[in-house]
Amino acid sequence: MPSIAGAGGGRLFSVNGAASYCRRRLILLQRPLFSSLAGGSGSGDDATPHLPVVIVGAGPVGLVLSFLLTKFGIKCAVLEKNVEFTRHPRAHFINNRTMEIFRKLDGLAGDIERSQPPVDLWRKFLYCTSLSGSILGSVDHMKQEGSPISVAHFSQHKLVGLLLKKLGGIGFQTCLPDEIGSSTRDLVLENKILMGHECSSIQLTDNGILIGASFNEAGRMQERKILCGFLLGADGARSTVRELAGIHMKGQRDLQKLVSVHFRSKDLGKYLSRERPGMLFFIFNPDAIGVLVAHDLEHGEFVLQIPFYPPQQMFEDFSTKVCEEIIVKLVGWEPSDVQVLDIKPWVMHAEVAEKYISCDNRIILVGDAAHRFPPAGGFGMNTGVQDAHNLAWKLCLLQNGVASPSILQTYESERRPVAIFNTELSVENFKAAMSIPAALGLDPTVANSVHQVINSSLGSVIPRNMQKSVLEGLFSIGRAQVSEYILNEKNPLGSLRLARLRSILDEGKSLQLQFPAEDLGFRYELGALVAEDCAETTYEAEKQKHSKRSREYIPSAKAGSRLPHMLMRALSTSNEGVFSTLDLVSGDKPEFALIIAPLKESYELARAMLKIADELKLPVKICVIWPQGSVDAKVKGSRSELAPWTNYVDVEEVPRAPVNSWWEMCQITSKSVILVRPDEHIAWRTESDRVRDADSEVRRVFSKVMSK
């Protein structure tokens, strides 16, 4: 825990970690709210390298942030405390919304689709007594709703590899400490991922954040000073940046403790590919219980999750030999080539940071540093990537002088409610997963209660080894509930339990993988947008609607919503190809898009939008959506209506039954005009014939969106 001391003009927060080579500290001085983005050293040392942005953490979220910022023209560097990237698969499910974002990262989504395992090898969750034993039930989770691209199953370490290639393509380099040296004079850090550099101190100065980055050079710990305008903490669930900034997490802790066993077996992969392919295998038998994640059946890469109960069961008890024995018990036969690669303990939490922004808007938390979810539903990495997508364009417009510094507060007001909602949803999904063992007579709450009783009544009386024997003996009796003697159709109790399990699966009340209503239909209530004055649009109403477990995505053009997808075709060009409405928004620059129908009042509003945007030096494009079958003679009218402006595009709807038009799908009329932000969320919606003074209305809208 941080210790706090200080007097007069400053406060000192320090954290002493056993694994750290140096004393971490955060000095918060009383400074003006906002000075310059990053200029000068602020410390009297002109040799201190300085950058607009430094990102801490080179996981998927940090790398996506660095890619987006670089594409938008913001110089940045990344600090990563490890000297090499982990080979542990970790996260593996990429939802629709994240894949939509990846489509615009120089074709990253396409690379993932080509590299991931075939869909038929991972579309199902299976519930079984062993990987070669009875199948108790299965669920096919593949469905496609409202998106131009499907979900993906692609391990995190492979995703990091692809992101590094994309970053290399725009000039990024990965550097070890000995490749940089200890001198800071004339050091160029922009477009670099500094491996083996841990953020060890942070000081707020007149000109930004002065970072101390500790690194090991030739066996000696040294510290490199870097000045930046903004420090983005993307350094994971145990974030150093969050700790240094003194930001606390709120929510549920210690939901479950597990051991994660990363192993390879091509024998097992071939067997499952042939006999019972799936992504997740929930295995219950009298000898062992576990969840197997099949990251790649073709290459035989797996992660086994095993619950454990300290202090009676300790992580040290799970040796390679013990883990191999558990694998054999869960498989039902002994693969000849099991290779245990890594064994890690981890604790499941459901928490969100009390705030995302600190130190005069200079320190910002992103991804797992800001929220920790149970893995049920795969919300963690996906929510983090979408955090990055929300933040990048705002930082760019702030640096370019278009937006006010307070636009950064809209990052928190938009993304934190989403994280809170996703936390609740992931806990709900985790409880749904626990309903299956409970239906089979293996209620996890009973196991937790037994563990608590042993801790409270026996902990101070008998030795740990004896406590362990008592606990494992009781668990063994519990696992007998899934023996073949009980769990079969001829046994009345077993038949009743199997019927209950089938009912849970058939009614969609088990662990779910896809949440289209939440992944695509989440909506910002307050932030960089013009909120709609309608009680039914509040975030609480959205939560109540989704709490009914309706997973259907309903397209919406309300302010704060993601732009609904429909296929379009460009007019007045020789290109006959189709594309998504999401592609009307540029991925290469922070450009707004105003979507209109070819109506007189809408063109008038579009001209005002282009004029005011030009004054503000804000990129805006007009997108005119024409009905299917529109003739060239009519389409050419946009040229005269929007002259002298040329940054517009005419597109034709390509609707699919039962929808007749994009406007109908969005449940609005063609009189509507929709301003879409660079992150593909709707900033403002109105009907053009309701606007009396177009110039004043546009200025009001931009003032609200830019937080001015």
TrEMBL record:
Q: Name one GO molecular function term.
A: oxidoreductase activity, acting on paired donors, with incorporation or reduction of molecular oxygen, NAD(P)H as one donor, and incorporation of one atom of oxygen
Query: Keywords on this record?
Result: FAD, Flavoprotein
Residues forming coiled coils: none
Give the residue range of the signal peptide: none
Q: Which Pfam families match?
A: FAD_binding_3 (PF01494)
Report which superkingdom the organism of origin falls in: Eukaryota
Q: Where is the FAD-binding domain?
A: 51-419
GO CC list: mitochondrion
A Gene Ontology biological process noted in the UniProt record is: ubiquinone biosynthetic process
The cross-references to InterPro entries, in alphabetical order and at most eight, read: FAD-bd (IPR002938), FAD/NAD-bd_sf (IPR036188), RIFMO-like (IPR050641)
Instruction: State the protein's name.
Output: FAD-binding domain-containing protein
Species, as recorded: Oryza punctata (Red rice)
